[in-house]
């Protein structure tokens, strides 16, 4: 495995070859490793980037405390058979004078987009930059960040990015909690609460799949989340392409929630079979 | 010469080959043909796009009356040895739901950027899309649109676009008027005024090159433009990378002006040898 710590090192490691690419912010867990395994199924020449992207964190968010276990990440990447890891320094990604951004589309307006102003602009900008630098044929993302999937898909459609996107279902702990690099922030008590939330989400999804209208089910879900000790930012049944909320599920609809438990924001979503 | 009227036709015409590319809005004149000749020097496989980009016109601007002499354009392109012309329909470039844009950098803030809100967002977005669709190794632009050169350069730097940019000096009429597709709008009297303006610009440049401070020279230039019958929007000595105005010229500085003559906005600029 080659670890490229600059664009020049990366270019020489790639030698013009396109790859199956997994962009990450590091702190790799089973969810990321599932993305890597999918990438390796697509192409044995697999690339992974580790970059905690300052442009997608708000001024009051957790950029400085975001976990950066870099040696462990490199060991995991190597053991999964990653060919090249790109580990750029922030000053190479955002040099002095940097000021051109991607302004994300309509799917970025609601939900995380309204609660985290600038977040998806930062996500789109760094993803487009990484796409341009690595020039992969395929990029693999996790459904865990549902709206991110929608916004990046829309960016690639709208800006004619010639890269195939592949999305993988969320990997979960044994109690169903979605794997996330931020789960390490949870205290033992909070961890128990967090583990109950996905069960509530799944029940709500089942009720919608069984024919109940989403508005009533989501209202119950929000109440159940509060009763379980979480503080919901939002929950909704949505179209995963447009991110518009739906009353009645369609073929690919997903139910999603964002809940604060202590100081941690937990994102989760799952498909609804109508 | 292949004329590709859709992305599918273009893809089949390119067959994965990279090219030297000249993006245009059509109404081709000697300035464009000089860009094509430069492109052909770089690579005999040369592509040209013709697309009057609605996203870079303001609501009160001349989108509907912009000249579209398409058969003549295709004849000119063919006679210059262009390999592939891409002539996309607007609904393929901006389909229903299109909403992801490039938000241009600091070089887009002043001058045209402040007088034509959204203009450079439209320019950057369509140029990035064309770059992604055509995947050229080189793109050739004219210095005539000075700030456009700066903004596109910054976009390519900031977003890591792997395309070499080449800029060519402005082609002029016999009296020095910069060639422009919009010159056809000038009445005979306006055409005479337009022809005098570049002489004023050149004299101002010479005075700055001889050591005079730009502020005083530009003030005189603006007055001389008005005396000649033009209405200046602005004039300045600028750094062509940052588009910041300068008091004393540096190695690559250029003097620029934008002047309205009748209903036509004329852009011109030229280098200053300090």
Please characterize this protein's 3D structure.
Two copies of one chain form a homodimer. With 274 residues, chain A is an alpha/beta fold. Chain A folds into two domains: 2-168, Rossmann fold (3-Layer(aba) Sandwich), CATH 3.40.50.620; 181-271, 2-Layer Sandwich (Pantoate--beta-alanine Ligase, Chain: A,domain 2). Chain A has nine helices and ten strands. The first copy, chain A, has helices at residues 7-14, 30-42, 70-79, 90-93, 112-115, 119-134, 146-158, 188-209, 214-227, and strands at residues 2-4, 20-24, 46-50, 84-86, 101-103, 138-142, 164-168, 231-238, 254-261, 264-271. In chain A, α2 links the parallel β2 (20-24) and β3. In chain A, α8 (188-209) runs antiparallel to α9. Chain A is globular and about 55 Å long. Chain A binds chain B through residues 7, 97-106, 121, 124-125, 128-129, 132-133, 135, 154-155, 157-162, 242, and chain B through 7, 97-106, 121, 124-125, 128-129, 132-133, 135, 154-155, 157-162, 242. β5 of chain A pairs antiparallel with β5 of chain B, so a sheet runs across the interface.
